[in-house]
Amino acid sequence: MSQHTPYPTRIQNFLDALDADIDTDIGVLAQRHDIPAVEAHALAHTIRRLDAALVPIVPDEGFRARLKADLLGEPPVSGVFGRVRNLPPRLQVAAAVALFAAMTLLGRRRLMSEAGDLIDLFRDGPQEGGEVEVVTH
Amino acid sequence: MRFWKKQNSESQPKELTDTELVRMAKEDKAAFGEIYERYLDKIYRYVYYRVGTQQDAEDLTSRVFYRAFTHVDGYEDRGVPFQAWLYRIAHNLVANHHRDRSRRKIIPLDEYVVTKLFADTDGPERAAENTEERERLLRVVRQLPQDRQQLLILKFVDQLSNAEIGDIMDRTEGAIKSLYHRTLTALRDELIPDTNPDTARKAK
Prior knowledge:
Number of helices of chain B: 11
Radius of gyration of chain A: 34 Å
Shape of chain B: globular
Strand content of chain B: under 5%
Distance between the termini of chain B: 35 Å
Structural class of chain B: mainly alpha
Strand content of chain A: under 5%
Helix content of chain A: 55-70%
Structural class of chain A: mainly alpha
Oligomer: heterodimer
Shape of chain A: elongated
């Protein structure tokens, strides 16, 4: 970068380059834009601190749903499914997986229980006065 | 780093443009729901950092969207993009809020930001140091002139480009860059005593 370029322009170009990549080598960048290294490091340090402090936040999910309902006249979705719908997509997937796992576990337990009863029945043989009817199709 | 990740995410394909959505919302108010989903987080963040408490942020964000909802029919893209129009509503409401409350003590950003949000996993001592440092920085930011606060929040919290910030603040991109540099320099000067104990001692 030419020294004929006015200093404010050089600084702005330096800051633009930092916007693009803060993890770049500040010394090299300062040299490229002909900025004093001390100044360059101080500015980069300030930007990093700002970036760490000014974090994006999200509004409360209840507030989000209420305001939308108020604006558009849609009743807020209530109940378990309403709550799940308000969750971020990743948590919705996790909830679906958990539900599927729970259903599978319950189904398996019931199947095992019925199979156990059937095995017991065959092991013990037909009760006196009773008989096992085998149905074939 | 969060701020710099934005550069890549912008290349993702967009669905409807703001202009198309606004045109739809004028005919069918239900289409405003899409605008709401697109901008709620951004406007809320902006308002939150300007007013400092969740309660006020929710109140003012509601007003922003009510106003936008009722005035969307009158919106015409005459060089001011819809996003900038929405932020200007937010800015005006925040300014009114501060004017109304100018006699009251301004409450710093509520504990949500400085404690829960910044609770680190590096151990309690380190977390306390980080929280303290961030709290101090946020305090300094909130002492800056309004336009500088606005610029920093739009740039770091809402991660807007200099051109988008220029649209919102009704300034050229060059003017925004210049203001950004002046703001950083002022902050750096303000924060130097923090990082250099010798300087701090001399300053006293």
